[in-house]
Amino acid sequence: MMLRPHRLLVLLLMLSVGRVLAGDVLLPPPGAHLDGMTPAPITVIEPHESKPLKPVEVTYQGYPLAPVLDHFLGAAWRAPDVLVTFEARDGYLSMIPSVRLTQYPVYLVYANARGADFSIETPPLNDRVPLGPWYLVWDNIAYPELRADGATYWPYQVTRFGLMAPERLRALFPPMLPEKYRDGAQLTRQYCLSCHQVNGVGGSKMPIDLAQWTTHQSFARFASWVLDPSAKNPLTTMPALAVERPATERQRMARQIYGYLRAVGALGGRN
Ligand code: HEC
After folding, report:
1. Rounded Cα distance, 151 and 137, in Å
2. How far, in Å, from the CA of 182 to the mean position of ligand 1?
3. Per residue in 155-192, pLDDT tens?
4. How many angstroms separate the alpha carbon of residue 258 from the centre of ligand 1?
């Protein structure tokens, strides 16, 4: 069947938008090596294995992220307000503001530079979890302020990345939502939506809709999950919210997240 010209135009437009947005890029396997780029060692304080008073340094082997993104996504990812997404094998989805990626040195690594296992020990059972094929790490030695966010924004087992489409972002912050919920929305995206969802946006590791869940819950019950999930379930893989930060700040963050989720939930349904 012949495509009518306007259909063809729409098709071409869709293809070109798809390209510019580069919704989803499948990363090549490590070893296929990224054209013309030279891997280098990078030493970090491994947030998955460190405690505030017991930092653990690890040296990984990998590439600075910026040229990799330039290569696959063009310059589009550098625009302000863009979120770059990193998706892991198990559905974990990190959505990282481009500003942060341009502000701090960040690397896509694929091996331990000293030849040790490319894996980390994770609670609660201290299982060793492989980090490959790709793992995103930050220079938190040169930039100690990055340590305040622990392992948030350090996705491992990454297989794809891309740019978050603007309409999906709008679903997280519908036009009807008052501006005062902006901080709560940002915290939710940063700390919760890698595993959970709001209005269909987020990771699929534990894809409950947090806005719907929160509508029926008191702040006390919400906070007990968020601040100390292992008290709810000792075997949970859900991390406690921002453990590196002081208790009062964690409380405040939990309130902001709760306020935002209740407000989005009250607007109802997918927007
Ligand atoms: C690394 C993934 C991950 C992140 C990040 C995460 N969670 Fe969870 N969450 C889980 C998993 C897995 C469960 C399933 C419960 C269990 O393990 O016992 C869960 C359970 C919950 C529950 C209980 C749901 C129920 O049906 O009882 C709530 C509420 C919740 N999470 C809220 C949050 C909020 C709010 C944030 C952000 C501050 C967050 N989670 C961050 C993985 C995560």
Report:
1. 9
2. 21
3. 999 999 999 988 888 999 999 999 999 999 999 999 99
4. 13
